[in-house]
Inverse folding.
């Protein structure tokens, strides 16, 4: 029998047209994502639904949809989409085509508001509540049907700290087995538990993001617990051994670590040459809005000049129709089951609906009035953008939360976007 392998998930891409088709094929066993057309989608769907006994039958079936039979079959085997087995298996993650206007392609899950560290820059109150709320395995399993109907392809597991959630392993394995592109955020403090999970999940591919916010003493000071640097480094050393994991080190630049950033970049480059290193600037959101570690806009301008890596947040789809993907093709579920446009978006303005009262599918189809507005809002609709000479090429992510944080008005452009565009576009002129 020819089957579609476990770990393969086929979802619809944004604004997919039925005939020309635009689908995303992902295999969590090898971590490869490919865009495919409607005809290839049909071949995969038919192989999944019908009994295809041998290669001859596979050639006949493929021929009905495409003239490039040999090439398509070769690629499907190369990407480990197809395999030959004794019995017929049906893959439940080859999703039926629905006219989903806004596929919820990226969903972040705040598994818990508990945390084992106490970081000075954190936008959340994580770890400081009398009682913690958690998204349970049973709950997440119960919303998988809606997640499928919305064609979600990437799941981020975050918190708080995911390694304080008692069902973390079970939840992560559930999404890996169902072919999601899984990204895990952790402070790396509980490296032993993560090491056990890495052994358990060896057959799957994933991305793990570990925070390092300075050299030893500074990191510990920022993160509010001794040994947090030592443990995070142990975590990174363990991750070096796992080829199935793409590791990304996240550093938030703030007043306390600014002087050490160059040294930190060098240390990471030398010790972890295969890992990526993402630099960000402390954001004035939620709990961090009046934080002593924040920079003024003119200080940020200097930091941008020095570390152009913080420019990397360009829109993944180039010049885009929408202002940002939050509420349009991406969202987050808080540990208390509120659907919001992204993880830091606790403010009621950014909430799409309450999952304690309604289903994910209903809320996504009929979001709050603000949610509807976000879907209507084009990338340069604000009066400031309309008058701006940079708008034709402007494609840095224009975050509503940062506009709210810096300008007290989420409908304004984010000043960091404008800063990045000014530098980028003037460089292009030389
Ligand atoms: C909320 S944490 C959750 C994952 C995990 N506990 C950790 O610390 O990596 C996710 C990321 O957000 C970053 N972060 C927290 N507060 C921030 C802020 N005010 N501005 C920018 N990044 C922030 C953290 O440094 C971390 O890299
Ligand atoms: S940044 Fe991460 S580790 Fe630090 S307090 Fe926030 S959730 Fe916890
Ligand atoms: S640079 Fe700023 S004002 Fe100009 S188009 Fe981009 S976001 Fe709008």
């Amino acid at each position: 029998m020819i089957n579609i392998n476990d770990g393969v998930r086929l979802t619809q891409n944004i604004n997919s047209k039925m005939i020309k088709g635009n689908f995303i094929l992902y295999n969590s066993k090898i971590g490869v994502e490919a865009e495919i057309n409607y005809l290839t989608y049909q071949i995969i769907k038919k192989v999944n639904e019908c009994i295809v006994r041998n290669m001859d039958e596979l050639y006949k079936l493929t021929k009905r949809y495409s003239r490039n039979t040999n090439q398509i079959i070769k690629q499907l085997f190369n990407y480990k989409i197809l395999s030959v087995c004794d019995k017929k298996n049906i893959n439940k993650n080859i999703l039926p085509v629905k006219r989903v206007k806004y596929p919820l392609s990226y969903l972040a899950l705040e598994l818990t508001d508990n945390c084992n560290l106490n970081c000075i820059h954190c936008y959340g109150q994580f770890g400081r509540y009398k009682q913690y709320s958690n998204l349970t395995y049973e709950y997440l399993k119960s919303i998988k049907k809606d997640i499928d109907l919305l064609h979600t392809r990437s799941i981020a597991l975050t918190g708080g700290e995911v390694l304080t959630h008692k069902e973390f392993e079970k939840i992560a394995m559930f999404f890996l087995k169902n072919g999601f592109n899984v990204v895990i955020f952790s402070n790396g403090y509980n490296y032993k538990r993560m090491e056990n999970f890495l052994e358990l999940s060896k057959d799957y591919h994933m991305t793990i993001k570990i925070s390092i916010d300075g050299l030893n003493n500074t990191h510990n000071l920022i993160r509010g617990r001794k040994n947090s640097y030592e443990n995070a480094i142990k975590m990174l050393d363990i991750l070096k051994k796992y080829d199935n994991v793409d590791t990304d080190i996240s550093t938030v630049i703030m007043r306390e670590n600014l002087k050490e950033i160059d040294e930190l970049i060098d240390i990471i480059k030398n010790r972890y040459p295969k890992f990526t290193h993402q630099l960000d600037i402390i954001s004035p959101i939620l709990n961090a809005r009046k934080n002593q570690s924040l920079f003024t806009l003119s200080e940020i301008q200097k930091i941008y000049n020095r570390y152009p890596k913080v420019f990397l947040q360009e829109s993944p789809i180039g010049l885009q129709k929408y202002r940002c993907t939050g509420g349009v093709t991406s969202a987050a579920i808080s540990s208390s089951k509120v659907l919001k446009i992204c993880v830091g978006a606790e403010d009621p303005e950014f909430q799409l609906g309450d999952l304690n009262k309604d289903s994910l599918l209903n809320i996504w189809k009929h979001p709050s009035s603000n949610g509807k507005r976000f879907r209507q809002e084009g990338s340069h609709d604000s009066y400031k953008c309309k008058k701006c000479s940079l708008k034709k090429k402007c494609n840095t992510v224009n975050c509503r939360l940062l506009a709210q944080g810096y300008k007290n008005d989420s409908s304004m452009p984010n000043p960091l976007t404008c800063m990045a565009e000014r530098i980028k576009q003037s460089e292009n002129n030389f």
User: Anything to note?
Assistant: The chain has 16 helices and 14 strands. The CA atoms of residues 267 and 273 lie 10 Å apart. The mean pLDDT is 92. The longest strand covers residues 245-253.
